[in-house]
């Protein structure tokens, strides 16, 4: 039985904000809430999607691996967020693998039930379309970040985005994950941190201190069309 507090977390996602209690009950009745320790492999690329997953607590990395075993982190997720929506909607194979970064609680919603509910109810299908559109826009931003910036600039913009108005950032995961997320090797990440020391950033392990925001901003050149956090989208454009 899924507790009311967890259902409230699910409803905090725009995709589920307008579903009726009966619809939410139908979706969760065929689902399960699981706890996973850090480092748990949730699924592997190439497998069929049996569930839509909702991260309620912890952290998850989505990654891909080539035939030589080299991994690249595609995205890191923190609560509350859903993931692998496109695969759950289509029943297509996963294009990425997923692994917990932290001890996590994940709600598994049966993909077949989810597809049937979306197909039958426009009140759910419209926000699902908006969620897919938002994810597409997020990927475009990531591609622009990789194509238009140097690795050092990507790191600088990432730190500025994480910090917001604060002058201190605590990395939520290890530097290996950060390097892969930014499309860099661990060695290049270390060199990038060294470079940013000359541009207003002090590194103390996983703690990052912005000593000169103007200098770091001038060097990194953040762009709102890449770095700004976009709110929930609406198909009406409102």
Automatic annotation (TrEMBL):
<dbReference type="GO" id="GO:0003677">
    <property type="term" value="F:DNA binding"/>
</dbReference>
<dbReference type="Pfam" id="PF00027">
    <property type="entry name" value="cNMP_binding"/>
</dbReference>
<feature type="domain" description="Cyclic nucleotide-binding">
    <location>
        <begin position="15"/>
        <end position="135"/>
    </location>
</feature>
<dbReference type="GO" id="GO:0003700">
    <property type="term" value="F:DNA-binding transcription factor activity"/>
</dbReference>
<dbReference type="InterPro" id="IPR000595">
    <property type="entry name" value="cNMP-bd_dom"/>
</dbReference>
<dbReference type="InterPro" id="IPR014710">
    <property type="entry name" value="RmlC-like_jellyroll"/>
</dbReference>
<feature type="domain" description="HTH crp-type">
    <location>
        <begin position="149"/>
        <end position="214"/>
    </location>
</feature>
<dbReference type="InterPro" id="IPR050397">
    <property type="entry name" value="Env_Response_Regulators"/>
</dbReference>
<protein>
    <recommendedName>
        <fullName>Transcriptional regulator</fullName>
    </recommendedName>
</protein>
<dbReference type="InterPro" id="IPR012318">
    <property type="entry name" value="HTH_CRP"/>
</dbReference>
<keyword id="KW-0804">Transcription</keyword>
<dbReference type="InterPro" id="IPR036388">
    <property type="entry name" value="WH-like_DNA-bd_sf"/>
</dbReference>
<dbReference type="Pfam" id="PF13545">
    <property type="entry name" value="HTH_Crp_2"/>
</dbReference>
<dbReference type="InterPro" id="IPR018490">
    <property type="entry name" value="cNMP-bd_dom_sf"/>
</dbReference>
<keyword id="KW-0238">DNA-binding</keyword>
<keyword id="KW-0805">Transcription regulation</keyword>
<dbReference type="InterPro" id="IPR036390">
    <property type="entry name" value="WH_DNA-bd_sf"/>
</dbReference>
<dbReference type="GO" id="GO:0005829">
    <property type="term" value="C:cytosol"/>
</dbReference>
């Amino acid at each position: 039985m899924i507790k009311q507090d967890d259902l409230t977390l699910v409803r905090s996602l725009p995709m589920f904000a307008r579903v009726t209690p009966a619809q939410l009950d139908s979706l969760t009745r065929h689902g399960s809430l699981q706890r996973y320790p850090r480092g748990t492999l949730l699924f592997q690329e190439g497998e069929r999607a049996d569930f839509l997953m909702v991260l309620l607590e912890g952290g998850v990395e989505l990654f891909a691996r080539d035939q030589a075993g080299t991994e690249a982190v595609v995205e890191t997720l923190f609560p509350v967020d859903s993931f692998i929506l496109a695969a759950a909607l289509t029943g297509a194979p996963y294009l990425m693998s997923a692994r917990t970064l932290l001890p996590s609680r994940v709600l598994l919603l049966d993909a077949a039930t989810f597809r049937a509910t979306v197909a039958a109810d426009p009140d759910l299908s419209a926000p699902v379309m908006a969620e897919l559109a938002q994810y597409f826009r997020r990927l475009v931003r990531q591609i622009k970040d990789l194509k238009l910036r140097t690795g050092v600039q990507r790191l600088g913009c990432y730190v500025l985005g994480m910090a917001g108005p604060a002058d201190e950032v605590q990395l939520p995961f290890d530097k290996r994950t950060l390097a892969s997320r930014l499309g860099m090797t661990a060695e290049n990440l270390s060199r990038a941190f060294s470079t940013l020391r000359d541009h207003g950033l002090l590194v103390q392990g996983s703690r990052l201190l912005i000593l000169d925001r103007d200098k770091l901003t001038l060097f990194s050149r953040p762009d709102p069309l890449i770095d700004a956090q976009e709110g929930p989208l609406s198909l009406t454009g409102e």
